[in-house]
């Protein structure tokens, strides 16, 4: 069965389905973009985690409302030029940092949380296989998905930017379950990370950034990495 419904209702409809059609052998999958997940639908998603609903919730995170004109979302990164955080005399892109809902749900003790990236398919597939076996609460999968049009790069460079996002530790791959964090191999095995400046170079959404702004973004990514390492000890 496939149901299509408004953005904010994704987790709510999934909850209704498992409440009415109670079948432990059925995996209920909710799939939504970042705006519908971390902004419009966050209340329902958090409630699903609290209730320990047996839902697999997938967030397709391309860091903005891409099909409505590239408005900024909660996952849009610091400094990005969007239609609602335009670059001009009084604005230099999004002034806030990316909202980390995967970490929020881990702290809320969702049954399983994982970050994924199509550029690392073995890691991706293993996490999906694990997700479908979990029946004791909310499963949350966050997939970073580069958008050539809105990020501002040529489509043939999609995998290149996908890998650079991980290699620069801009996007961290990890898992959470049973009060334990595990750093995934593609992130853990990085010995000489790229600078964030190399990842954002060539993306039109960041072309206006000053050296100071890039330093702020780098520090934010470094801080997130430090926190994850401590949580995974």
Structural write-up:
The chain is of the alpha/beta class and 233 residues long. The protein has a single domain, classed as Thiamin diphosphate (ThDP)-binding fold, Pyr/PP domains (Rossmann fold, 3-Layer(aba) Sandwich), CATH 3.40.50.970. The chain is 39% helix and 14% strand. The protein contains ten helices and six strands; from the N terminus they run αβααβαβαβααββααα. It has a six-stranded mixed sheet with strand order 1-2-4-3-5-6, with helices on both faces. α5 links the parallel β3 and β4. The radius of gyration is 18 Å and the shape is globular.
Chart the SSEs and their pairings.
Blueprint: H1 10-20, E1 28-33, H2 34-40, H3 42-51, E2 55-61, H4 101-107, E3 112-116, H5 121-131, E4 139-144, H6 148-152, H7 158-167, E5 174-177, E6 180-183, H8 185-188, H9 196-200, H10 211-231
Parallel strand pairs: 1-2, 2-4, 3-4
Antiparallel strand pairs: 3-5, 5-6
Offer a concise description of the structure.
Keywords: Oxidoreductase, Pyruvate. The protein has 233 residues and is α/β, with parallel strands linked by helices. It is 39% helix and 14% strand.
From the N-terminal CA to the C-terminal CA, the straight-line distance is: 41 Å
Q: Number of helix segments?
A: 10
Instruction: Identify the CATH architecture.
Output: 3-Layer(aba) Sandwich
Oligomerization status of the protein chains:
single chain
CATH fold-level assignment: Rossmann fold
Mean pLDDT: 91
Please state the structural category.
alpha/beta
Rg (CA only): 18 Å
Count of DSSP E strands?
6
- Sheet-strand content, in percent, reads 5-15%
- CATH superfamily, by name, is Thiamin diphosphate (ThDP)-binding fold, Pyr/PP domains
Uncertain regions spanning at least 5 consecutive residues: none
CATH class categorisation: Alpha Beta
Shape: globular
Organism: Megasphaera paucivorans
Protein name: Pyruvate:ferredoxin oxidoreductase, beta subunit
Pfam families: TPP_enzyme_C (PF02775)
GO molecular function, one term: thiamine pyrophosphate binding
């Amino acid at each position: 069965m496939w149901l299509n419904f408004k953005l904010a209702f994704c987790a709510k409809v999934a909850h209704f389905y498992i409440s009415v059609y109670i079948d432990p052998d059925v995996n209920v999958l909710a799939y939504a973009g970042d705006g519908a997940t971390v902004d419009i639908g966050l209340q329902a998603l958090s409630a699903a985690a609290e209730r320990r609903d047996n839902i697999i919730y997938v967030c397709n995170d391309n860091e903005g409302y891409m099909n409505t004109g590239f408005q900024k979302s909660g996952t849009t990164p610091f400094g990005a030029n969007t239609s609602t955080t335009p670059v001009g005399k009084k604005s230099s892109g999004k002034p806030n940092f990316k909202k980390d809902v995967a970490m929020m749900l881990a702290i809320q003790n969702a049954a399983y949380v994982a970050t994924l990236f199509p550029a690392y398919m073995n890691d991706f597939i293993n996490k999906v296989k694990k997700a479908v076996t979990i029946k004791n609460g909310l499963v949350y999968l966050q997939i970073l998905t580069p958008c050539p049009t809105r990020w501002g790069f040529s489509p043939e460079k999609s995998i290149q930017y996908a890998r650079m996002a991980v290699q620069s530790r801009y996007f961290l791959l990890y898992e959470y379950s049973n009060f334990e964090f595990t750093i995934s191999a593609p992130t853990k095995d990085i010995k000489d990370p790229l600078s964030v400046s190399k990842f954002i170079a060539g993306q039109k959404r960041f072309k206006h950034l000053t050296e100071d702004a890039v330093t702020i973004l780098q520090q934010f990514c470094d801080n997130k990495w430090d926190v994850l390492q401590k949580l995974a000890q």
